[in-house]
Amino acid sequence: ILGQYKTVLIKRQLRDLQNKRLEKNSLEILKGIILSKDLAKVLCALLWWCEGNKITSFVRFTNSDPTLIKNFLFLLRFGFKIDEEKFRALVHIHSYHNDDVQRKFWSTITRISLIQFNKSYKKLNSGIRIQENYPGCIAITYYDAKVAKELKAIYNAFSQYRGVR
Fold first, then answer.
1. Residue 103 confidence (pLDDT) above 70
2. What predicted TM-score, i.e. pTM, was given to this entire model?
3. At the N or C end, where does the chain have fewer CB atoms within 10 A?
């Protein structure tokens, strides 16, 4: 049993060392990239294509990962001329969530005023499976057809340029 424990410890240490090395290399790669408005638009379009709607009358991005939401909004705000009043947010919560707490949480994450939040959508939940620290999902809508069409055009151009389509 002691031998198995040592093997597990050694494997864990090797994995941790490899992860640290990868993180350091990734940080060096990112330090070498200058984020321009054009690059921000491309990155934003790729994120939007993965997690957004494909309607071109507005931009909608939905996810439960606060970091992904922050990154998408950072790129959107950095790459495009944004009118903050055109944002709306809809929180999807379960019965075990506190609506006020979740709305404040997402307002802090998104830097969107609570006034711009729609009434939360309460998902049906059996109560059997409760996820600890799950913040619910948020759908961010930005009402600007021009930005939505540009995101779609950038994604399509990227796909054609790279020969993926």
1. yes
2. 0.83
3. N
Type and span of the H or E element at 59: strand 59-63
Report whether 113 contacts 107 (CB < 8 A). yes
Query: What is the distance between the alpha carbons of residues 39 and 45, in angstroms, rounded to a whole number?
Result: 10
Q: Report the distance separating Cα 118 and Cα 107, nearest Å.
A: 12
Question: Nearest 5 degrees, angle CA 63-CA 141-CA 58?
Answer: 120
Q: How far apart are CA 142 and CA 55, in angstroms?
A: 12
Distance CA 58, CA 37 (A): 20
pLDDT tens-digit series, residues 56-95:
899 999 999 999 999 999 999 999 999 999 999 999 887 7
How many residues in the chain? 165
104, 122 contact by CB (below 8 A): no
